[in-house]
Amino acid sequence: NYWKILIFILIFIYIIYSNIIILYNSSKNKTISLNKQDINSNKELYKNISQIYINQNNLELKNYIEQFFVGLLEGDGTITVDYISELKKRVRIIIAIKNLQENQQMIDLLVKYIGGRKTLERNNTYVVWIASSRSDLAKVFGIFAKYPLLTTRKKLQLEFALEFINDNTYLSKDKFIELRNNKYNKQSNLIDYYNNSFIPPIYFPGWLSGFIEAEGSFKLIKSENNTIHTSQFIIGQNYDKFILKSILNYFDASNNTISYDNKKYYRIHISNQKNRILINKHFELYPLLGYKYSQYIWWKMNH
């Protein structure tokens, strides 16, 4: 009980402090910068970003990275609870991505501005960000309070994890497994609700860049004579059609079709010139931070 109270106190302090910063910064027409220490390990990758975002407040960058982090987690992350014993459960928040130099730098930004730690797994093929300590989990839960999760699956993972954070109540392994297996029981009801009522929050643009870093792709289509015929921005999502509908609306492409596979995996393709202009403007303000940035620049420069 002591640790649970301490966690909630830390979350409360974090939220109050962050909201003060947001109110302060909202009065200034500024965007987010990556300073020299953040970009010096790969100047070529972040050259355009550093030229766009200059002389800005480090706290504004932190706010953006928090929004980006939530979107990235919703695509490439998981919130897990491990059974240790009848009296002990372990909560971990994990993001695992391919071990590429750009992705390592992105994880370094998460560690610097959010907390957690970086490790390499699966024979060094994946770089992994992990939050598992009480202090790191308190920071992340504070971020979730400020920028709530949007996908139904992650919402339910968080709900399940909060049941066990620093809870030493006796629970058998069989009962734990039963609860874990049932944690998505409410997902279909959540999907039905949000399909009819979802309104993108004010932090949606920053969230979206993180989500695109995880789930988006940039494709060039060649014609028969081997020249570039067209380009496509593609992104998909399991279950949550409302997320893709919101992305289409955001890029003024609401007339585009949402394709699906057995009503489980949904995908959108955006390709016309008007929408590409909006995509480019979006990334000027809300930059990608990992390997997907390199893909985007290649896509942009070749069509």
From TrEMBL:
Gene3D superfamilies assigned to the protein according to its UniProt record, in alphabetical order: Homing endonucleases (3.10.28.10)
Domain Homing endonuclease LAGLIDADG: 70-160, 208-301
Example GO molecular function: endonuclease activity
Residues annotated as signal peptide: none
Organism (species): Cyberlindnera suaveolens
Keyword terms of this UniProt record: Endonuclease, Hydrolase, Membrane, Mitochondrion, Nuclease, Transmembrane, Transmembrane helix
Transmembrane segments annotated in the record for this chain: 6-24
Gene that this sequence comes from: cox1-I5
Protein name: Putative LAGLIDADG endonuclease
Xref: InterPro entries: Homing_endonucl, LAGLIDADG_dom, LAGLIDADG_Endonuclease
Pfam family, one: LAGLIDADG_1
GO CC terms of this entry: mitochondrion
